[in-house]
Amino acid sequence: MNAMTYTAKAADIYGDVLHECVACRAKKIGYWRKKSFHYTHSASHKAFHIYRCGNCGTAFLNRPPALQWLQTIYQYSGQALTQTVTLKEVLTKEIEFPNCTVDAERISQLASRLSRTSNGYALDVGSGFGFCTQALRRLGYRTLSINPGQYENKVFKKLNGYEPLAMTFEDYQTNGKFGVVVMSQVLEHLLEPDQAIKKVSGLLSPGGVFACAVPNYSSFLVKLLGTKDNACLWVPEHVNYFTESGLRALVERHDFHIVKVQQITRIPFNAVSKRLGLEGRTAVIVDGLVKNLQRPFAGLMNLLGLGIYINLYAVKQQSA
Ligand SMILES: [Zn+2]
Asked: Cys-Cys with 26: which of 2, 55, 184, 211 at CB 3.0–4.6 Å?
C-alpha cells in the first residue's frame, strides 16, 4: 500500500492521490466517473472522482476525502443523521421495515457458528445503534464496541446499557484477543481498508471469525442508477465500493480463510410507490406487489451477483 499521509488542514477536502486498488492492490486503475454532492453541513458542492480497478473491479474515491474532514462528520454520525434520534424512533422504523435487526441476527449467528475458538469475546467495530452488539450478547458473547458517532452511541446505550468506545477503529489499541470481530457497513467508510483488515487479523484468536458486510458495487442498483445511486455510491462517507472479488482479495491477504460469502437484497416495500409518488389505493396495491415479488427478485439478483450487500465470513488461520 502506498503511503497515505494526511497532513491536510481542517478545511481541506481531499487526501492524497491513490496509485493502486484499495482492495487487490493492482496498479491497473482508471478513472470511471465523477460524482458531485451537496453535503448536509455545507452550502458548497464538491466533486469527487471515482476510480475503478481493472483487475478486481472495486472502485474508490481518488483523491479520497481528507481524514480530518471525514472524522468531523463521523463524530456525530456514520449514517447521515443530522440530529439526535431516540431508541423508540429507531425501533419504530425497524418494526415497519425490519432491516438492521435482521442483519445483526444473521451476521452474529453465522459468525458464532463458524467460529473455531473458545474465545468468548466479540468486538463490534462501528457498532452504530448497537443491534449487532445486542445479538452477540444474546449469544453469550462478552462484547466491546467501538463507534465514533455520538448520535448513534446515545441509542446504543439505551439498547445495551453501556456506552461504546467513542473513537475510530484506527485509534483503538489493545493487547486483547477476540473470538469474533464484526464490521457491518464499516469497511466502505475507511480510508485505509488494508490497514483495517490487517488490524482485525491481529485482534483475532486463531480460529476466530471476521464477519463483514459491505454494499456491493456490482449491484443492480449501481448498474441501473449509475452515479445516481446513493446506497453504495454515497459520497463522501463511502470511499470504497467493493466487488466480491476485491473484498476476497483484501481479506485473504491477511491470514484469513474465507468460509462463506453471501449476497443480501432487501428493498423497503414502499420504496417504489414513494419513488413514483403514488398515493391511496394504488400505493397499497404497488406496495403489496413489491412485498410479494421481493423474495424471488432478491433471490435472482443475489444469484446473479447483483445483490445489494455482500456478507463475508473468514476464519483467522493459525500463524505459521
Ligand atoms: Zn482491485
From this structure: 55
pLDDT in tens, 88-143: 999 999 988 889 999 999 999 999 999 999 999 999 999 999 999 999 999 999 99
Distance 243 CA to ligand 1 centre (A): 9
CB 201 within 8 A of CB 256: yes
> Are residues 209 and 115 in contact, defined by beta-carbon separation less than 8 angstroms?
yes
Question: Which of 195, 194, 183 has its CA nearest to residue 310?
Answer: 183
Look at strands 121-125 and 45-53 and give their pairing: unpaired
105 C-alpha vs ligand 1 centroid, how far in Å?
A: 31
Which residue segments constitute the domains of the chain, with CATH numbers given?
29-316 (3.40.50.150)
Beta carbons within 10 angstroms of residue 100's beta carbon: 20
Q: Calculate how far, in angstroms, residue 170's C-alpha sits from the geometric centre of ligand 1.
A: 22
pTM higher than 0.85: yes
- Going from the Cα of 86 to the center of ligand 1, the distance in angstroms, rounded, reads 40
Of 149, 159, 180, the C-alpha closest to 101 is 159
Ligand 1 centroid to 251 CA: how many Å?
Answer: 12
Task: Quote the ligand 1 centre to 273 CA distance (angstroms).
Answer: 37
Q: In angstroms, what is the span from residue 22 Cα to ligand 1's centroid?
A: 7
> From ligand 1's centre to the CA of 80, what distance in Å?
28
pLDDT tens by residue, 234-279: 888 899 999 999 999 999 999 999 999 999 998 878 878 888 888 9
